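ping. complex inputs:
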Amino acid sequence: MTINTPLIHIPSLSAFGMKDVWIKCENMQVTHSFKARGAANAVAKLPKKVMGVITHSSGNHGQALAWAAKQKNIHCIVVVPENAPKVKIAAIGKHGAEIIFCAPGIKSREAAMQAVINNNGYHFIPPYNHHDIIEGQSTCAKEMLLQNSQLEVILAPVGGGGLLSGTLVACEQKAVDVFGCEPEAADDAYRSLLSGKMEDPGNPQTIADGLRTGLGEITFSIISKNVKGILTVSEEEIIQAWAFAIHNLKLIIEPSCAVPLAVLKKYSHLFANQSIGIIITGGNVDMERLPSSQDAEAYLCQ
Amino acid sequence: MTINTPLIHIPSLSAFGMKDVWIKCENMQVTHSFKARGAANAVAKLPKKVMGVITHSSGNHGQALAWAAKQKNIHCIVVVPENAPKVKIAAIGKHGAEIIFCAPGIKSREAAMQAVINNNGYHFIPPYNHHDIIEGQSTCAKEMLLQNSQLEVILAPVGGGGLLSGTLVACEQKAVDVFGCEPEAADDAYRSLLSGKMEDPGNPQTIADGLRTGLGEITFSIISKNVKGILTVSEEEIIQAWAFAIHNLKLIIEPSCAVPLAVLKKYSHLFANQSIGIIITGGNVDMERLPSSQDAEAYLCQ
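pong. complex structure:
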């Protein structure tokens, strides 16, 4: 079972002119990321008899699927790019999944996975481009709105777009503006919305390792119809926001989570006097690679 | 102004048989510890014209007083033992206070401080043994009971006893049992309650650096009359609980905060089916000295 994570009011974040700012702590979720929500939902909806499940993942989805499959005694294989954080790889193994390494990039991942599917008929549960995954991720924003019905804006990071799509689904009938938050260095969602078609993510170099993947067809379709906007931030802005979360909020979060925190500051004029909810997506980070407290001080400077 | 910190429900902590367990995140307080509450109250109650304020502190009270004095444009001197964590010493300086180093131990601290008071007449604001400090610390438990009126037990660490005394004051007319939580290696409060008189703390060697000091006359008087019990834990138990908070809760907390978390597990039979509130006292810790994830796994094992 996934848990109802806390939604915390952070007074210091209102310094940028918002009415109040709340963070949804998915770093405290089972497997320490929101991905457990999608994986649990997708596994719950599997056909009764499956040989096993397989996926490719930079880490958090793999860990979440390994956990969700273990709950149902289903064998799980995860294809992982060689450059994924050590802590994430170790956690996938901890939940009893089998790990196969591949080169970075979506094409290498898919090729490695297809080879296994061809051999043993495992059921593929993709990281984001799947209705069951999106439905699972939608429970996060639904919870937020139950915890605080006054929220007017939700900021969610966008990589493959599963969380952002789920958030948009959850907010469909609500008076809530949802923005996607993306690194400038991995801005395929931003470019895709501009051009009206799915743009190639390439092999982006961003510290926000959870956001290196591109949109899928389903997530692109949901996002392009419903999102209020995609807002991008630089690597320096991400690192400062990340350091602020670690050293000032005293929360261990992944750099990907810092992207909406950086957006909050950079685009504060969009959020003046509003109640903002920010999804803190996960806490799986190599502890020996944390940012410095000097960077934390830069975040609150105007 | 101090802030109303979050009280967070942590489902995984109910594994020891409690109804539910809530943590009060004073690591997210101004200056990252509950000490800001006492310092702000003591500074607010100063006579109108003071030359300046002075205190001795292993770190958090010094930082809190430096912050509280700065809010009122009052000069502040802090006497700090040489073995205090670097991060705490740096933070005292950051708030503009003057720092004087002394040898570890309460007698060295008091001598160094008295020399300054004799020379310049500064107003002494002690870390815990003072009614204004205790009154300030009482706001923490008061907030907890407003945030969750169903709490039946509150666990607070005990060093000098300011927070525990304040918690007892806040719970005086309430149906809440308050326990003090102490390292075995610094168990002067436990021994003092047994003997009925203040016992010498000595120079205790515990990783819980915030709890090395002994009770004062005022805190001993309040605690011995009202506390439900003092519960002690070993260094190993503290380290495991600390690692759990860092790696599983993804919260950066000081080792002192881990003492009540260790008590929750060790004395779980005392808390069966009850709603427990735990005060997480602070988050000022040297980031290069964090515990390992192996220790974290040991905490949840029965």
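The longest strand of chain B covers residues 177-183.
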